[in-house]
Amino acid sequence: MPVSDFISVSRPDAEWWRTAVIYQIYPRSFADGNGDGIGDLVGITARLDSLASLGIDAIWFSPFFESPQKDAGYDISDYRKIDPLFGTNEDFYALIERAHQLGIRIIVDIVPNHTSFKHAWFEAAVAAPEGSPERSYYHFLDGKGENGELPPNNWKSIFGGSAWSRVKNADGSDGQWYLHLFDSSQPDLNWANPAVAEEFDDILRFWLDKGVDGFRVDVAHALVKREGYPDADDRDANGNVVPISTMTEEEAERRVPYWGQPGVHDFIRRFRRVCEEYEDRAMCAEASMSPLTRLAKWVRPDEYHQSFNFDYMHSPFEPVALKKIVTDSLVEYGRVGASSTWVLSNHDGVRHATRYGYKHEDLPAPGDGIGPNDPKGDEALGLRRARAATAFMLGLPGSSYLFQGEELGLPDHIDLPGEFREDPTFARTNGERVGRDGCRVPLPWEGDANAANGFSANGKSWLPQPGSFRVLARDKQEGVVGSTLELYKRLIKERKAYGLGSGAMAWAEEYQDKNTLAYVNNGVLVLTNFGPDPVVLPAGEILVTTQHDLRIEGELEHNETVWVKL
Ligand code: GLC
Predict the structure, then answer these.
(1) How far apart are CA 163 and CA 518, in angstroms?
(2) Residue 386 CA neighbour count, 13 Å, CB half
(3) pLDDT band for position 1 (50/70/90)?
(4) Looking only at Cα atoms, what is the longest distance across the chain?
(5) How far, in Å, from the CA of 74 to the mean position of ligand 1?
(6) Nearest C-alpha to atom 2 of ligand 1 is from which residue?
(7) Which pLDDT tens digit goes with each residue over 374-409?
C-alpha cells in the first residue's frame, strides 16, 4: 500500500499514559450526591461504574481542593484538603480505591502558578511588612507614579483588566501591588523563592502517597516571570493579543515576559524528580505553547510526560489543517521521545459538538464562550461533525483526553442567562466576554427524572441545563444503537482491541481527496469525509461508522468517519 512520507511508531503500553483514554471530570458538574446542586465525590463514586463501562483508562479531576470558588476551584486555599463542598479527604481515598478496583487511574489537578487570596501564605504576606519573607512567596511590587498609584507594569489579566491589584497597609493606607495573571483572587506565586518549590515538593508527595497516579499541571508555562518585570509587548494596534506562535522563540520570551520563560524548565524537572520517587506516575502540562516545535520542549525525557495538544483542539474541522497538525504532533513529540496527546473539548472552551456547528472564523477566541446574544450555529451539523472528529481522534496513536459529557454529544448551553454565569471573565468584562460556563453545565443522567435529569436527587443544579439535555441523558442513550454514548464505547473498545494507542500509523494517500483524510493504524483504516458529498467506502470489515452503525453500504456520507479493518 502506498503510504505518505511519514510513519509513526509509538512505544508499547508499558508507560500507561502514552496510550490512555483519559476522561476529565469537572467535579461540580458530574453528579451530586448530597442534594446541594453541586456535584461531589460521593456522587462521582456512585457513578464510577458508568465510566468503567465506557472503557476509559484514567480520570483527570479538575480541582476539588479547599477553595473560595472564585474561579471554580482553580483558586486553592489548601492544597492538601478536599473542599467540604465536594466531601472529605476520606471520600476521595475511597474513590481512589474504587477506581483502582475498576482499573481506572486517578489524576489530580495541581495549580502551582497561583493560590487563592484566602490561602494562609497570602494572608500572611498581606499582613507582613514589605520585603518580608512572607511577601516573597508572591510578586509584591511598588507601584509607579508619584504615590505608587499606578500598577508596576502593563501586564493584563487573562480574565480582563489589569494583572495587578493593590493591598492596604495595616494603617489603612495604600500599599504595594501584587501580581495575578488571572482573577484578583488568584495571586501568582513567586517561584524565584526556593521556599515555594519546597512547598510544592511536599504537596506532590502528599497526593502521591495517597495513591494518585499523576497530575495535570495548571498553567504550567507561567511559573517564571521575567526578571525586572518589563512591560509586555504582546498586543496589536487594536489591543488584541498577538499569538506567540507568530513570534520567534526569543521574541516571544521578550514580548510576553510571563509565558514560557527559560527558567521554567528547572521547575518541571524538579516535579519530574518527585514523581520518579514513585512508580508509574505521570504528569500532563497545560502549557498553551505554540507551535508544536516549542511545546515539545515541555515533554523532553526529564520534563513533563505529556502536554495537552491545544493546536489540535483549536484546529478547524478541515482536512488540510488537521493533517498538518497530526503530522507535526507525531513528529515533534516523537523527536523528544514523548507520545502525542489529542483533545477536542475541556472546561475552558466551547464544546466541540457546538463549535463544529459554526464557521471556524465565527468562533470566539479559545478560552471564551458563546452567549445568548451571539448568532446560533447548526446543532445537528455540529454533533454530526463532533462524532466524526472523535472517531478520527480515537484512532490515532497516543493518548486522548475526553471531557465529561462529550460521550453524550452534549452541546454548550449558549442561552445561559448572565445572572447564572460564574466565570470571573463575565464579571471582569461586564459581560462583554461571556466566559466558560456554557460548557460546564451539570450532566444529565436520567432523562425522565423530574428536574436536572438525575444530576441531583432533588433536581437542584448550580447551573440550569438546556432543554436539549433531556433526550441526551445517559439513560436515553445506554444500549441504543447509533447513540453517541454507544459510539464512544465502541470506538474505545476497538481502539483497545487493535492496539491503536500504541500503533504504527501512516497516512493512506490512496483514500484521500480534497475533502477526505485517511490513515492506517495497525491495519485499521480510518477515513473521514469532511466534504458535502458521499465518497466510496473502502472494502474491508467495517468496525465503526459514525452515522450508520455498521449498516452502511457503498458510501461514506458527508461529515462521517469510518473504521475499516483492511
Ligand atoms: C487553567 C484552567 C482554567 C483556570 C486557569 C486559572 O487555564 O484550565 O480553568 O481558569 O487555569 O487557574
Answers:
(1) 45
(2) 32
(3) very low
(4) 80
(5) 6
(6) 218
(7) 999 999 999 999 999 999 999 999 999 999 999 999
* Phi, psi (rounded to 5 degrees) for 289: -110, 140
> Which ligand 1 atom sits closest to the C-alpha of 182?
6
Which atom of ligand 1 lies at the shortest distance from residue 424's CA?
A: 10
Rg of the chain over CA atoms, in angstroms?
23
Query: What's the 215 CA to ligand 1 centre distance in angstroms?
Result: 14
Model confidence at 2: pLDDT above 50: no
For residue 203, the one-letter residue type is I
251 catalytic, yes or no?
A: no
Q: Are 492 and 104 in contact (CB under 8 A)?
A: no
Task: Find out whether the beta carbon of 111 lies less than 6 Å from any atom of ligand 1.
Answer: yes
Cβ count within 10 A of residue 558? 18
Q: DSSP labels for 330-369?
A: HHHHHHTTPPPEEES--TTS--HHHHTTS-GGGSPPTT--
Q: Does the active-site annotation cover 5?
A: no
Alpha helices in 171-318 (DSSP H): 194-209, 249-255, 264-275, 292-295, 310-313
SS in 3 state form for 135-152? HHHECEECCECCCCCECC
**Amino acid residing at 108:** V
Nearest CA to ligand 1 atom 6: 74
- The distance from CA 482 to its chain's CA centroid, rounded to whole angstroms, is 27
CB 6 within 8 A of CB 506: yes
Res. 420: pLDDT tops 90: yes
